[in-house]
Fold this protein.
Amino acid sequence: MSSHQDLTPSPLPEELDRALRGAADRTLVALTVLRKAVRQHVQDERERGTSLPDIEVELRATIARVLKDAVGRDSVDGERDALANQMMKWSKGFYNQND
């Protein structure tokens, strides 16, 4: 390698670093907002006396509707199922919490 290549950092890794940081930050914010919304919904429904199975049926219907609307958007295989499964885990955990 030439000394020019050794001393000059490639701009691509810096661009990738910024892009990754930005994507990670946006993803974490979106997941946090989603988790808080699920928590609030489950707590509200539980206070109204709704059973966990009924809450789960409603959440699954909402998830299915949203995912149907998202058909055609770029997606990695299984990521939508993984997100739906995580939402169901959150709902169970929030339902069973003692506030």
